[in-house]
Amino acid sequence: MTQSSYPKLLEPLDLGFTQLKNRVLMGSMHTGLEEEKGGFDKLAAFYEERAKGGVGLIVTGGISPNFRGRLAPFGSEMSKPWHVSKHRKVTDRVHQYGAKICMQILHAGRYSYHPFSLAPSAIKAPINPFKPKVMSERQIKTTIKHYARSARLAQKAGYDGVEIMGSEGYLINQFLCPRTNERTDQWGGSFENRMRLPLEIMKQVRQRVGDKFIIIFRLSMLDLVDDGHTLDEVLQLGKALEQAGVTIINTGIGWHEARVPTIVTSVPRAAFSWITERVRRELSVPVVAVNRINTPDIAEHILASNQADMVSMARPLLADAELVNKAAQNQPEKINTCIACNQACLDHVFANKRASCLVNPRACYETELVVTPATDKKRVAVIGAGPAGLAFACTAAERGHHVDLYDKANEIGGQFNYAKQIPGKEEFHETLRYFAERIKDTGVNVKLGQAQSADGLAAGNYDEIVLATGVKPRQVDIPGIELPHVLGYLDVLRDHKPVGNKVAVIGAGGIGFDVSEYLTTEKSLTIDEPEWSERWGIDKSYQERGGLKQPQPESSPRQVWLLQRKPTKVGKGLGKTSGWVHRAELKSKSVHMWNSVTYHQIVPEGIEIERDGKRELLQVDNIVICAGQLPLKDLQQQLIDAGQSVHLIGGADVAAELDAKRAIRQGTELAAKI
């Protein structure tokens, strides 16, 4: 038998009364299925695939112990005996594959998105319109009992344990930190008083469930907000939790309101394993490292260097349910790696939509997006090897169709080849590596450097033709647009034409932000964690509460104006969980982000604009046009006229902001039914 490349990752973990088959914990992630009608059947299929894929321990999305702690008005709770049966569907399916599963108990406190929220003090969260009411002593004691009741019901539902959510700025975290706890009774003031709530919860939960039940505590090791924990407090609580009978300590990083990115794609891999390592030194129970651990190599390094006893992966297991099995088979190159884009997972959850995954549209749709062998095998031509064409071609070939994939470029990837050049988006290389491997496995016949004509395709005797030809940049009608210092975004990102020191970027959508990032960044910090931490003001010496210090902004090699016609906030259309990071990045580099701009004319000296009723000449060396795209579907009508069956997917179908999430889903869905 071949020796594993990941011996530490695949090593069992003995918890005394039970054993985990490996060191991979699937981290808690709300999917939205918890609240859908019939959602628990779909949730069971979702977790079953991850258990079958080799995960050792799964933690569910947050389930409230009572009504007031719900994340949203109709959020899930585990508080009544009749809640048990639907959870049993999940646990039964997971246990078929030797995995274990814990239910996360989460009381949202002031993060509850409804008017019935409670918190230690009546301080409104900056990310929530609802101001919480102060918890009375009686309500605190009742809530502690509700945690214990919820854990006991989870045990009855077949869960192997629970995770008590004590981080990310939720209720327990709110009691622990002076930022949100202004109480003067026995639940506030000194740290001994502030940590009374989690310790009482821990003790009563252990009492209700007995010794042979996993209790994970998600400990906020680095709050990244003012008036958060000190390191001494983190260690004191960790040791007290050990005394109270905790089984595993899981790391929590950052509150949801923190202004430091913790999980977006520009965060370096394993950027926070240092704090897990620091806390682990003081504890004897197993400790879990978290955040931006998306490959078995990173995970193995963390474990082999004794930074942690387990690694938590949440989004990487949305991206590829088989991640652990592929690692065990020494096939990491076949893993569909999470690119930390958040577009289909967290952005969906925060918009009250079902979570999924940009690179794996089957995530959370396991019972609906089903790929089965084709009964009628066809000859299919796919024109365009961008995300939509790649997803379609590979899925169709998996089903048994003969697929020819054409692209006029000399490499696969389409627009991803430009995106991967943007500082902070290096992970996009991984998706193209994955598709290249999948092409080999599925037998797609790739023909690069070949532009196609309707006549040529008609001569190929194809049963179906799929146009995934993507987009072309939309031109803007401004006098002087033909001047030589005017560039398109492809001139910059594809052709690498020289760009001067002063630049106006027209169009502040995703591409405008990407081009501005590209033009203002000399060195990507995604691969330099110490420098990245300095840049964002993370104090690794932990001298201040919350682990924050003064950020060190990067200097920009250029002066950039990012302009848009719309009166809305610049960057309003960016993702909810990542847009603020992009805006903060550009602001730190002194990029001027201007809205309500009227473009009068481009002249050799720059561009004449009007803003706030004043006309001015913006003196710049170059103007870069990022004003949207149009679909490239020139072949469609000719093929229809020739009697061909034609399908449009991706940008060729809808050319709104370059949308890889929709493109990959559309390609996969069409291939599943063609």
UniProtKB/TrEMBL annotation:
One of its GO terms (biological process) is fatty acid beta-oxidation, unsaturated, even number, reductase/isomerase pathway. InterPro entries: Aldolase_TIM, FAD/NAD-bd_sf, FAD/NAD-binding_dom, NADH:flavin_oxidoreductase, OxRdtase_FMN_N. Its cofactor is FMN; [4Fe-4S] cluster. Its EC number is 1.3.1.34. The keyword Membrane does not apply. One of its GO terms (molecular function) is FMN binding. Keywords: Flavoprotein, FMN, Iron, Iron-sulfur, Metal-binding, Oxidoreductase. The keyword Oxidoreductase applies. SUPFAM superfamilies: FAD/NAD(P)-binding domain (SSF51905), FMN-linked oxidoreductases (SSF51395), Nucleotide-binding domain (SSF51971). Residues 8-332 form the NADH:flavin oxidoreductase/NADH oxidase N-terminal domain. Residues 379-636 form the FAD/NAD(P)-binding domain. Gene3D superfamilies: Aldolase class I, FAD/NAD(P)-binding domain, NAD(P)-binding Rossmann-like Domain. It is an enzyme of class 1 (oxidoreductase). In the N-terminal section; belongs to the NADH:flavin oxidoreductase/NADH oxidase family. This is NADPH-dependent 2,4-dienoyl-CoA reductase. It comes from Idiomarina seosinensis. The lineage of its organism: Bacteria, Pseudomonadati, Pseudomonadota, Gammaproteobacteria, Alteromonadales.
